[in-house]
Known about the structure:
Blueprint: H1 2-17, E1 24-29, E2 34-41, E3 45-50, E4 57-60, E5 62-63, E6 70-71, E7 76-80, E8 84-85, H2 89-98, E9 106-116, E10 129-139, E11 142-154, E12 159-169, E13 179-180, E14 185-203
Antiparallel strand pairs: 1-4, 1-14, 2-3, 2-14, 3-8, 5-6, 6-9, 7-9, 9-10, 10-11, 11-12, 12-14, 13-14
Amino acid sequence: MFTRYFAFILFSLTLLLSAMKTDTAYFQIEQGSKLQIKGTSNVTDFTCHCLESFPKSQAQITVAEDGTKAKFSKTVLQIRTKKLDCGNKPMNNDMFSTLKAEEHPYIEIELIEARPSTGKSLILEDTWIPVEATVNFTIAGVTHKETLSIQGKKLDELEYRFKSSKTLLFTDYGIKPPRALMGLVKVANEITIELDLTVTIQAQM
């Protein structure tokens, strides 16, 4: 689900940049795609990988007439927190506890708007194109609006690659950074979400 969220955003950006007029389409995250959460502590760095499977999914989009932006409605996605693997069971349990997985088992993301940073289109270009997306993150029951900077590139007729990195603060979502070993290990307030996805897009017929 976590990676599905990013794929949904990237799918929507693909529609926008490709000037597709359809309102509904399917997307598939291909094998080899990656999503991970990185953090640091006073002892060591850590990386949590998403273990979620990537089924074909469907989404809707409304593209502006001039192709400068796309707006979305009812695009709330849910992410299972316990599909994150930080490398060992104690670290996983600490992360689940930090993200309040029992009380709030899902992270929710609502895509609001996407817009190209340049006048270029992925459907015509085979180079990296910058895009910005506005989303609402809901983590542990707290919602904040965030902006994602994404690089997209056309690989084939229906295949695209997307890369992005976003830094968030635990405390912005009312979360206390985790501690372990009676407080001797202290995790920093910042975490970085990194993605590198290959996505196949197919318009609904």
